[in-house]
């Protein structure tokens, strides 16, 4: 038997394999590119010339649409059938979706040197792959007979909003509409990523906790989820409108709800199981991040818009502390469980977890403390380095599971 064909068959045997590997590679590539760009801008490393797109916008796009979605689709491809007792996602959907999305990311990188037309072609490829993946999930959602589809309904709508956000990026690239770029950046966070991560947390954290913590009482009020989703959308709408001084009207209740859930879900009891603790600590970052947003908005409200306290600290507390930590905690569980390994966080997983907490602090604290710009630049560089030092060992540990057969000999 051809070893290459066997490897490809193993690799494409389950949807999480192809998507998670693409996300893992992109998690290294995008931060490595960002580190090189930062070092050149700060005069520490080589100058690589001028990109066709401002690097900060490229960084935002690659993280929002070129990093997290691979893991999100891999996770939802796995969970939708179990959530709704639906049919499994067929390879005829997830393999083309993976190839188109991965190819689109490559073209996006090439376009940063070759030109905006190549970059736009990359976005179109990504949208095509995203559309196939979304269609596969919609088939399960529509055809499954489970009576409770509330969680998948929210994540499906959020995925549609994410696809529209990519469309905004494409529209900006081809027609130079600034509002379309703003929609891509703002909508990607508040209409796509945050609703997905809050909904998955609401569904899975109490469930996983009940399997590990003795005498655990599942607390999962749906009205709190609806409140948090309304607040997320409300924040995004006000940000799009430039009404930053009024975002606290949505941020305060969202922060309070997240912090109360953090307590009710038992973060103080989760440390008995390190893999579970990753999820609880990640969710704790949500309450912290939105509290920072609320404080910043109140300061702007009281000062007439003249005080911008924390810079990008709230954004990175949200995207690294909550999104990245939660995502890789969930992905670690899925990878271990679906490769036939025990659900145990070993040393490598612990290094990744604590490393990402350090990355979050390195990216957040300088803005919070408003230190000198020169020191901020070094902290940004160090944050990127620690990301790679934490993430690369995680990839080397988990990635082989995506092209090897399951350890327990089962299919999938």
TrEMBL record:
Superkingdom per UniProt: Bacteria
InterPro entries (UniProt xref): NnrS
- List residues traversing the bilayer: 18-36, 56-81, 93-112, 118-141, 153-175, 187-205, 217-238, 244-265, 277-295, 307-331, 343-365, 377-396
Q: Name one Pfam family in it.
A: NnrS
Record's keyword terms, sorted: Membrane, Transmembrane, Transmembrane helix
Where does the UniProt annotation place the signal sequence? none
Q: What is this protein called?
A: Uncharacterized protein involved in response to NO
